[in-house]
Structures are given as C-alpha cells and as structure tokens.
C-alpha cells in the first residue's frame, strides 16, 4: 500500500492506493503543516483499520510538504512535485491524457498533462482564498458554509452590472443577463446574500475564462476541474454558463478534490 498526502495551506488530503486503485480518502484541517499531515494520516489509519506494516511508502506534496523533515512515523517518506501530482492524478481519474486541468484551491493552477510531460500553463491568485478574504471583509462571514448559505438567496442583478443594464439587445453570443462588470452596479439596498453570490460568481468567472483561454491555446475541447474548489455547486453553475457560451466542457472527476494526493501516491520514486 502507498499513501499520497497533499498538504495544502489550510486542508490536507490523504489517500491510500493499492495496485493502482484508490482505497481510502480522508481530509483534515489545520494551520500547521506537521499537525495537518500527521493528523490526516492518523485519521486515515484509524478510520480504516489499516495496519501500518502494510504501508510501503508515503509520498507527500503541496505547499506544506517542505516543512516535513524526515519520515512520517518511521515510514519511508518522499517529497514529490505538486504540478506533476496534479497532472498524473487528473489523467488517472479521467483515464486519458492530453488534458487541460484547472486545479482550484486557495488560488488556481492551470496545467497541461500527457504521459511525456506535465506543463504548468499558468494560473491565478484568484481562488478559494479570494472568496474567504472578500467575504470576511464585505459580509463578515469567513466560512464556506456561511457563504454558500447566504449566496443561495442572492440576486446578482443587485450587485453586478449586466449587459441588459447598458444594452437593449444581445451582444454577439452574449445574452442580456451576461455580466458586463463584476460589482459594477452594487445597489445601496444590496444584501449580504447578493454580495455572497457576487463574490462566488466573480471568482468562478475568472477561473472559467482563464480555463477557456488555456483550453483554446492547447486545442482542447474541455477542462478537467480538480481541487477543493471543484465541488462548489454555485461555482459549477457559473462554469456551466461559460461552457455554453464558449463550447468548452468542464469535467468534474468523482474524487476531484483528492486529485493531487492521488497523483502524489502514483508517482514513482527511487
């Protein structure tokens, strides 16, 4: 059995892999990398009755991996490249290569992957951290559950400037309800619900458009969406709208948020 660990800035994900099959998945939250990694690993062991003697090695990656020195609980532990982990994990999940990947975490990373090479296309500082930071300041909410609960009752037209506000007809393939400017028409009567929805919409519009540009540049008809931000229902709706406008399909693997940990576990190490 091999363990793959993705140590993020706030959340650590751990998977166990046997014979190229993902057996178990857990995640844990902690601000300290060592606490997060060992805590998530311990949680995996205890919750799934894993005998530690069955573990051959542990592969770790992510922003917190550099803070882990030496082996974890005496098990051979290797650091592996994060971009390679994302690419390998995504190809494993969708069972094909030559794919563009948008990995949404605290920020967003764009990657092109095939069996010969994993290429970092670019990325953006816009991601989950943007949502939390803006929500904390604008609506005094700093939990994703709180933001999502508010956004469910929001109305974008109270915050965003829409094409229908400035035009009487559609513009090319853009409908009149399309965004002309994020936060460009924030009303004095806008509620926290409206602002929460507008924050989510803006972040996923940025991610969606960057993903479209990346896919078009690589001649791809789709983008594989991975990372913690891949499982956001409001974000998915925003990406669906962008998909309809530009003909780029956004694909969400079954265990998308564990993609990096899966890829880390699958990387061959000396």
Mean pLDDT score: 93
Going across the biggest sheet, name each strand in turn.
3-2-1-4-5
From the coordinates shown, what is the CATH architecture of the largest domain?
A: 2-Layer Sandwich
What string, H for helix and E for strand, traces the elements in order? EEEHEEHEEEHHEHEHEHEH
Q: CA-to-CA gap between the ends?
A: 16 Å
Quick one: overall form? globular
What name goes with the CATH superfamily of the largest domain? ATPase, nucleotide binding domain
Helix content: 25-40%
Q: What is the CATH topology assignment of the largest domain? A: Nucleotidyltransferase, domain 5
Radius of gyration: 20 Å
Biggest pleated sheet: 5 strands, mixed
Backbone structural class: alpha/beta
Ranges where pLDDT stays below 50 over 5 or more residues in a row are none
Note the quaternary state here.
Answer: single chain
Number of domains: 2
CATH top level class name of the largest domain: Alpha Beta
Beta-strand residue percentage: 15-25%
How many β-strands, per DSSP? 12
Counting DSSP H or I runs of 4 or more residues, the number of helices is 8
How are the SSEs ordered, and which strands pair?
Layout: E1 2-7, E2 11-18, E3 21-29, H1 33-47, E4 57-61, E5 77-79, H2 82-94, E6 99-104, E7 108-113, E8 118-124, H3 128-138, H4 144-151, E9 161-162, H5 163-166, E10 179-181, H6 192-217, E11 222-226, H7 233-246, E12 249-251, H8 259-266
Helix pairs in contact: 2-8, 3-6, 4-6, 6-7
